[in-house]
Amino acid sequence: MTIETLSSKEVYRNRWMTVREDSIRRPDGSTGLYGVVCKVDFVLIIPYENGRFHLVEQYRYPVKGRFLEFPQGAWETRAEVPPEVVAAGELQEETGLVAGRMVPLGHLFNAPGYSTQGMHVFLAEDLSRGEQKLEQEEGDLIRTEVSVEAFEALVREGRIKDASTLSAYALLRMHRSL
C-alpha cells in the first residue's frame, strides 16, 4: 500500500525551490501532514584523469563550513535542458575543464524522505583545460586535484562530507575499477 494524498498546498516558493504541505492518509488509515521540498534535478560530475579527481571547495552556508566535493549544480530556470548539457556547462563553469567524453553513471535521489530532487551522475574523461566561469555565489570556489587514495583519506578525515559526492563515488566504483 502507499500513502494517499488528500490535499496539497504550496507554502513557500523562491527561484530554487518550492515547499508544499500535503495532507495524507497512511496505509493504516491514520492521517497526517507531509512537507515536501520540490527542486529540479541537478547534475554531479566526476572529473577523472590519470588516477586523479578534480574537486571543488566552497563555503556551504546552511552548514556553515567549507568542504570538498565533486562539481555539481542545476539550471533552475532552464529545467528543459538535457542533463548532459547541464553537466558540461557546470564542469566548465566550476573547474574550467571541458570533457572529451561524458559517461552517464546513473540517477540517484538526493533526499527522498523530504525532497523530489534527484541527481544525474556523470564521469568526465579526456579533459582539457580552459577558463572557469564562476557565478556570483561561487566566488569563493577553489578547485583542486587529488589522487583516489587522497580522496578516500579526505572522506575519513571529514573534509569530504557531501552525501551527493560520496554516493556518486560509490556509483563510480560499481561501474569501474580505479
TrEMBL record:
Cofactor(s) needed by this chain? Mg(2+)
Q: Which domain of life is it from?
A: Bacteria
Q: Where is the Nudix hydrolase domain?
A: 38-168
Answer whether the UniProt record assigns the keyword Hydrolase to this protein: yes
Q: Which GO terms describe its cellular component?
A: cytosol
Which reaction is this enzyme known to catalyze?
Answer: GDP-alpha-D-mannose + H2O = alpha-D-mannose 1-phosphate + GMP + 2 H(+)
Q: Which PROSITE patterns match?
A: NUDIX
Entry GO MF terms: hydrolase activity
Q: Which GO terms describe its biological process?
A: nucleoside phosphate metabolic process; ribose phosphate metabolic process
User: Keyword Hydrolase, does the record have it?
Assistant: yes
> Per its UniProt record, what InterPro entries does this chain match?
NUDIX_hydrolase-like_dom_sf (IPR015797), NUDIX_hydrolase_dom (IPR000086)
Q: Supply the alphabetized keyword list.
A: Hydrolase
- Family per record: Belongs to the Nudix hydrolase family. NudK subfamily.
According to UniProt, the name of this protein is: GDP-mannose pyrophosphatase
To which species is this protein native?
Stigmatella aurantiaca (strain DW4/3-1)
